[in-house]
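Quick entry, no commentary yet.
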Amino acid sequence: MWLTDITEYWANYGKLNLWVIEDVLSNRIVGDAIHPRMKSSLAVAALECAVARGAAIAINVIGLTYHSGRGHNFNPGTR
């Protein structure tokens, strides 16, 4: 099972959005992506990163459960 969340990080030059994916079994971060704007491509980039890293450390991604809190970030109607 992979868990995911996004957070805003304020840097000296402005806001960054950090999307992180954690593998529950290994308790390791397997995917991440960072971008100044919260866009769907940020989630896709983090997931692609996780799949590539998962393959590198022999995580079978077929049948994997991907879970998020489904907060306001996942529902454009609430923003």
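second:
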Amino acid sequence: MRAELDRIFLDAMRQHQAGRLAEAEAGYRQVLGRDPDHFPSLCEFGRLAFHLGRYDVARALFGRAAALAPADRLLRNNLANAEEHCGAFDAALANQRRNLVEDPAFPEAWNSLGNVLKATGRLDRAIAAYRRSAAAAPDYVAAVGNLGSALHQAAEDAAAIAVTRRALALLDDPELHHNLSHALLAAGQLAEGWREYEWRSRTAQHAPAWPQLPGRRWMGEGGQGGTLLVHAEQGLGDMLQFCRYVPLAAARGWRVVVEADRLLIPLIGRLDGAADVVARGDVLPAFDAYCPVMSLPGIFGTTLQTIPAAVPYLTADPDKAAAWRPRVAGRFRVGLAWAGNPALAADVRRSLAPDLLAPLLDLPGITWFSLQKDRVAPAGVVDLMADVADFGDTAALVTNLDLVIAVDSAVAHLAGALGRPVWLLNRFDAEWRWLRDRDDSPWYPTLRQFRQTTPGDWPGVIARVRAELARMGDPSSSHWQKDAFCSI
């Protein structure tokens, strides 16, 4: 029996190495079905499951293997990595601390410990752990790359750029290029940042959904009447921010067709320069060239000084706006959006619990309106969102507001694109597009930022917003300075 199991295992290993993962899994399962303690199959099937993102399966397999070989530190490290990805942070910490007691210079354990600390919001300690890992093994590219990423999250972009360049000298990797682009763009080094940002299509995050389109990629040449497809990528806010380049592409002689999320179609259909709009996922019309929407800034050589920031570049349908007007009553009307897309990994840091808004809601003279779809609005906030079907409706509602207060979400981009006053509640590790050390935005002239001064400090942000609103006074007062809300 042992010889037969070894034969099946070796065949599964060959399938695994050849990338035939389904066949490899079938082989590992066959062996473990006959011998649940077959150590090599537990380890290799665990590696395969982890690679496929089936972390609960990997955790079970590595856990069983670790029980058979309790002195194997590398195996314990693999188990801790799977535990971290399953959200079992305490178990992962316990395993890595045991590893580091046994070997204080174990670089993989320090790196894995950094991952757990970063995932649980202990960023300073995560950076220290990554530094220990990289010091123990200067050529350990995972630790050097993770250190660069953590430094960027800590808003230390100069250090992040230097460390990520060091990682790239060890390994020319799309993920590292993508990380470098974020740090460069956040630091305002847009020219190199846009070039590095082109690596995004080859990253694990974006490659699976990246469209494979026929024809040629547009690089900025004139169109002579040909059709250019500007296709959607990433989130709704990304399209709202970067569709501003469509008129510039049309000015180069192209008939521009924009692919956008279906929720954006009524709004993007009104965009200057858009000859046609097609919903994402629908059959595309014929085109001569194509371009991802977030590649447009690089194609036009955008710098901080040349951002096309004239607003509004999107407009609400005037009939819809008029229909909303009687429903949006109040002396001073403020829209609230407190959460973004929960499917995004960073959403836990950019969204806030609605109860944190309470200090704002008792200010006199303000009527609050929810701009949050499919969420329960806090008490005291008028919720009309059941009648909002798409962003055309949201734009019509926002057009009737005096101010929008929003976290980093599509609503903030919408208000900025409409030229409406918007206050952005921004996390400490703000996205690259919001840059660093400024409370305005070169992308949106009517936007003002209220950033966390320390990670997670939403109460501090809300206190500053309340103080600014209170400084303006009661809107019912003859002394109220309404213009104060849009000062930068």
